[in-house]
Amino acid sequence: MRVNGLTKGFFILIVFIVTLAFFDVLSPYYSAILWAAILAVIFNPVKNKIRTRLGERNGLAALMTIVIICLIVFTPLAIILSSLAYELNLVYSKLQHNDTQFPTVVASLFAHLPGWARSFLADHNLDSAQQIQQQLSDAALKGGQYLAGSAFLIGKGTFGFTVSFGIMLYLLFFLLKDGPYLVLLILESLPLSSYVKQHLFAKFAAVARATVKGTVAVALAQGALGGFAFWIAGLDGSILWGALMAFLSLIPAVGSAIMLGASGHLPLRHRPNCGRAPLSSASL
Predict the structure, then answer these.
(1) Which of 14, 39, 169, 252 is 20 to 30 A from 136 (CA-CA)?
(2) Has the keyword Membrane been applied to this entry (predicted)?
């Protein structure tokens, strides 16, 4: 059998090579494509309600849905990131001027350690707050030098993120606008029965909605509870630690428990009531 003068096997080989090249071109944008598809699945009911209110104006409904997504997802994220940057600057300033309770915390911690642990820390020059601060300062200096030397890579990464974000919004618009038609084309191209195809897509949509909504809701709840508990306990940088808790809760299995060490130093400073607040929020 010949297809446009080529044998069938050679034609299949060409299609395979072109497909690999196509996926290689798309490889830098896999995450943008995936998140566009997930957001389209999650917010498609919202778009349908807006379209009904606008008199079946599908394009305008998709555009308004993207505006809503930016308002309820990206705007709060930008506010949190700006607050996080302020908290990081505040913590850095206090560390730079030695305006912290770090020496007291370290002294209390060492007093409760067994002898073998104190000997181990002494062998590695970590038996005093001054030595620990010096090593942290050296590490921060090296990190700053590395970041300064990697300015081009950081700029490249920022540009790549901006491009990926734009691609995600562009693709999200068309997935919201023409999503049902595109899904129908994909399902028709699959060599499966109609029941299996419909069931497969329904399962994918349900799992995507449940996974994203559940993970994000749990992360936000843990971060909000933890930040509020740290604020009640009187810790500096409560927004910073709350955001860190929200991020760490996305790590499977162990993420939520990583912050327990941060609240453990409160009872060591003879403030057991303050120590209970973060620990209670972590338990919740």
Answers:
(1) 252
(2) yes
